[in-house]
């Protein structure tokens, strides 16, 4: 191993600096997922810090999904994915009480951008699935207890075909935040009027491969959701003050 690429630390914030040195080591040595990292002893000697500080830094890197520990082998570079970051994002949105309206604004922007890729990539089997989902919505009507699941499945399929896996994960986070709000009776607990018809219209535009029309109808769909949500929040606030 080329330990010369790791420089000693002299500043006070040792954990953060050790983390940066290890990241630099991974990049400069072009390590790939599964490649073994130096031991705690080697890093402590190279960085001129204690093993405890190195061990704590490894714990942080493991939490970030950059490093993983294998029993009897040591620590290796982990196959990167966004799960730890996205899980933290969901927790932050829920814990810090970010407005559901702000989450819906982000979701609207994502829908508008990624619908083009979805329409381009959708196959005939996908259209059959979308039609089946919309048919279940129509059959279930306004009192359909499974509507939220069907609504999710409709949009999730579009995101799976948009060509960007990260966008699909962001959709799932926005959906989870919305469900959390519903569970707390803060957001949509009822199906907004016209929502089912909006899905019928969106699907028709998708089947025509008309991106502009699909965007227009998605925008109308979001307008309806936002207005319905705003009305429910206002009514809830009024009932509390009475």
Using the coordinates above, name the CATH class of the largest domain: Mainly Alpha
User: What would you say the CATH architecture of the largest domain is?
Assistant: Up-down Bundle
CATH superfamily of the largest domain: GntR ligand-binding domain-like
SSE series: HHHEEHHHHHHH
What overall form do the CA principal axes indicate? elongated
CATH fold-type name of the largest domain: Four Helix Bundle (Hemerythrin (Met), subunit A)
Structural class: mainly alpha
Total individual domains: 2
By DSSP (H or I, 4+ residues per run), the number of helices equals: 10
Q: Beta-sheet strand percentage?
A: under 5%
Task: Write out key terms for the chains shown.
242 residues; mainly alpha; Arc Repressor Mutant, subunit A; Four Helix Bundle (Hemerythrin (Met), subunit A); 2 domains; two-stranded antiparallel ribbon; 10 helices; 3% strand; elongated
């Amino acid at each position: 191993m080329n330990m010369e690429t790791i420089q000693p630390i002299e500043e006070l914030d040792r954990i953060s600096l050790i983390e940066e040195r290890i990241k630099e080591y991974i990049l400069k040595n072009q390590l790939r997922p599964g490649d073994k990292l130096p031991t705690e002893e080697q890093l402590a000697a190279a960085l001129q810090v204690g093993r405890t500080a190195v061990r704590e830094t490894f714990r942080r890197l493991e939490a970030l999904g950059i490093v993983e520990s294998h029993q009897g082998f040591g620590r290796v570079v982990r196959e990167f994915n966004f799960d730890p970051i996205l899980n933290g994002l969901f927790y932050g949105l829920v814990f810090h009480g970010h407005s559901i309206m702000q989450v819906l604004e982000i979701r609207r922007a994502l829908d508008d951008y990624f619908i083009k890729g979805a329409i381009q990539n959708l196959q005939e089997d996908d259209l059959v699935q979308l039609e089946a989902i919309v048919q279940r919505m129509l059959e279930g009507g306004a009192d359909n207890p499974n509507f939220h699941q069907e609504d999710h499945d409709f949009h999730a399929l579009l995101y799976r075909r948009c060509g960007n896996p990260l966008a699909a994960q962001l959709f799932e986070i926005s959906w989870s935040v919305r469900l959390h709000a519903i569970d707390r009776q803060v957001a949509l607990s009822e199906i907004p009027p016209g929502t089912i018809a909006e899905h019928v219209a969106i699907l028709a535009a998708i089947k025509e491969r008309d991106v502009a029309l699909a965007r227009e109808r998605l925008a109308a769909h979001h307008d309806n959701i936002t207005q319905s949500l705003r009305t429910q929040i206002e009514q809830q606030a009024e009932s509390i003050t009475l």
